[in-house]
Amino acid sequence: MPVLRVALDLPLHRLFDYVAEVASPADIGRRVRVPFGRGEKLGVIVDVVDDSDWPLAQLKTAGEILSDLPPLPADFLKLCEFASAYYQAAFGEVVMQALPVGLKRLAPPVRRNGRAAAAVKAVAQPELTDEQSLAVNAVDPAAGFAAHLLHGVTGSGKTEVYLRLIERALAAGRQVLLLVPEINLTPQLEGRVRARFPAAGVVSLHSELAEAARERNWRAAFAGEAEIVLGTRLAIFTPLPRLGLIVIDEEHDASFKQQDGMRYSARDVGVFRAHQLGIPILLGSATPSLESWANAQSQRYQLLTLRQRANPEASLPVVHILDTRQMVLQEGVSAALIAAITEKLGRSEQSLVFLNRRGYAPVLACPACGWVSRCTRCAANMVLHLADRRLRCHHCGCEHRVPKACPTCGNQDIHPFGRGTQRLEGWLQEQFPEARILRVDRDSVKSRKQWETMLERIHGGEADILVGTQMLAKGHDFPKLTLVGVLGADSALFAADWRAPERLFAQLMQVAGRAGRAELKGEVVIQTQYPDHSLYAALVKHDYPGFAATLLKEREQAGFPPYAFQAMLRAEAPQMADSLAFLTAAAALPEIGEHENVIVYDPIPMKMARLASLERAQLLVESHSRPALQAFLPRWREAVEGLKAPGKLRWHIEVDPFEF
Ligand code: ADP
Ligand code: ZN
Ligand code: ZN
């Protein structure tokens, strides 16, 4: 009898064997019901063989092999295999997380018919600029695998390059996968894609879709009916029979990195997938990740550059660094910024004040006894939200009412310290009573629908002043927006996280890029106490390459990625001592001594050591050779799996870790 090797959704690095009455290699990639424990599970058949490592008589018999879907193709299983090996994630979990919920259920799902997107009229395409033409022509879908990095300043027309390449791929009968950081923030892009290709099937795949819609879209993509798949990071695993091009927009964005469950980078999986299929991949950004930039410098990726804004009327905004050291600020705002906003109001142009901190104030405190609003579950302060009179922890989500008096000493005179967008909004409204002020952050915009409404209001000219967080920074064209004021950026300059400057630069470049997208000239005012900082100097010159070169040199000297390869073992438990003891044991495993190219650091508490009542610690392992690290990790992981740990301790390994 044939033996099925089945991947199950379990955190175990092995396959499960079952005998089947009838099965053939044609069943590889099909879902199958199998007995497991006292119940049943749904798995995916990875192989059909004649024998097993187990005595055949001990194997259980598989149940029904489902045939409502064509088998998952070999390249999909290979992709999952790669991700499983590279990220030390259980293969079955990788396969199952890539499937829509409905297809993971034991009951065979009801077959639903494909998409029915409303037909839209095609829109004219602009004539490409010379730089855009060069970029488009550099990508040759017929030439096999190639990774291209499209570095284009904000407003340089990267999207137009994507659209032309998509057009070519469609003409060649291929499918295209277009990944974006957060679909919520990009309704404009989706609209542009649909409008440009009214005859093509365009489906989106992201976590905010209702289950049924997600499954319908996934099926259309898998069946090859949808030619264009627009998705967030998880979409990188969608099986696509005719995939001919992968595009990753805003490739530097942190949301391409999954931070829980299987910790993977959709960008890196994308490059592997393109390589595997022998197709081109295009990574686009105004501020590429240093990893991608280094790959372009060493010519592993081909660099394509757009230096000018595409709209011939538009120009890059003028960036002013405003030294606030000698200034008296009111609510953190300088008189100069107020004057600039006043001027824009007089001309009926829009201003944006950027403050990347939502809420009213980051903390509530008692001056009498020193009490501050700490979260009892996290190493963090509770943020004051005056609008609904709540104290809220932005890390674990727990919240309660604002106390009327100090919980420690009873003092009734407790104060908010520092400021967030709510407080700024209120204060600006007092300064400009006539102005229409819109606050845009995760508190005022919670759903895609609200975001679309908000964008419509901004476009419709219903706002004179926008107050917002980084939500506002991403790819939007606001033609009337001519002034961007930046507050509170300094706090990220000297953050302990060595990736902070890279992130801050990207963020400021993005938000500055909102100004002057059309004929009206834009200006940016950055308030700072460190006017001579090299980061600000690079911003004034719009000099990403210069700034990237500085950062890369620092990283090379410090031996940080991309000049070293890292993995992190993290443990969390109710007691820090348990977390640290576990990591200490992991650091002492004999497997470590056998791999001389791998360095293991000391276990330390994480920067945010306490989250949701768990004490977290981490152990960094590093190598100058990726293959050496990759050879070490599976053996070490197996040994760590064998360690004894207190029942409440959880651990995981993150390869190419992002946060420290
Ligand atoms: P990016 O994604 O690089 O920030 P976009 O693709 O959003 O830039 O383009 C910025 C603006 O320039 C958009 O309004 C777009 O319609 C316009 N645009 C793009 N390419 C051209 C072109 N070749 N000629 C004229 N306008 C263009
Ligand atoms: Zn007190
Ligand atoms: Zn908390």
Structural commentary:
By secondary structure, the protein is an alpha/beta fold. The chain has 4 domains: 3-99, PriA, 3(prime) DNA-binding domain (GIY-YIG endonuclease, 3-Layer(aba) Sandwich), CATH 3.40.1440; 130-306, P-loop containing nucleotide triphosphate hydrolases (Rossmann fold); 318-359 and 419-555, 3-Layer(aba) Sandwich (Rossmann fold); 565-655, Alpha-Beta Plaits (2-Layer Sandwich). It has 17 helices and 27 strands. The strands form 6 sheets. The protein has a 7-stranded parallel sheet, sandwiched between helices. Strands 12-22-21-13-20-19 form a 6-stranded parallel sheet, with helices on both faces. Strands 23, 24, 25, 26 and 27 form a 5-stranded antiparallel sheet that branches. A hairpin with a 2-residue loop joins strand 25 (604-611) and strand 26. Helix 1 (74-87) packs across helix 7 (266-277) and helix 3 (130-138) crosses helix 4. The protein is globular, with a radius of gyration of 27 Å. The structure holds adenosine-5'-diphosphate (ADP) and zinc ion (2 copies).
Q: How do the helices and strands line up, and which of them pair or pack?
A:
Elements: E1 3-7, E2 16-19, E3 31-36, E4 39-49, H1 74-87, H2 91-97, H3 130-138, E5 146-152, H4 158-171, E6 175-179, H5 187-196, E7 202-205, H6 211-222, E8 228-231, E9 243-249, H7 266-277, E10 280-285, H8 290-297, E11 302-306, E12 318-323, H9 335-346, E13 350-354, E14 363-365, E15 383-385, E16 390-392, E17 399-401, E18 415-417, H10 421-431, E19 437-440, H11 448-459, E20 465-468, E21 481-486, H12 500-512, E22 523-528, H13 534-540, H14 544-558, E23 565-573, H15 576-587, H16 590-593, E24 598-600, E25 604-611, E26 614-623, H17 626-641, E27 650-655
Helix pairs in contact: 1-7, 3-4
The protein binds adenosine-5'-diphosphate and zinc ion (ZN) (2 copies).
One zinc ion binds at residues 366, 368-369, 371, 406, 408-409, 411.
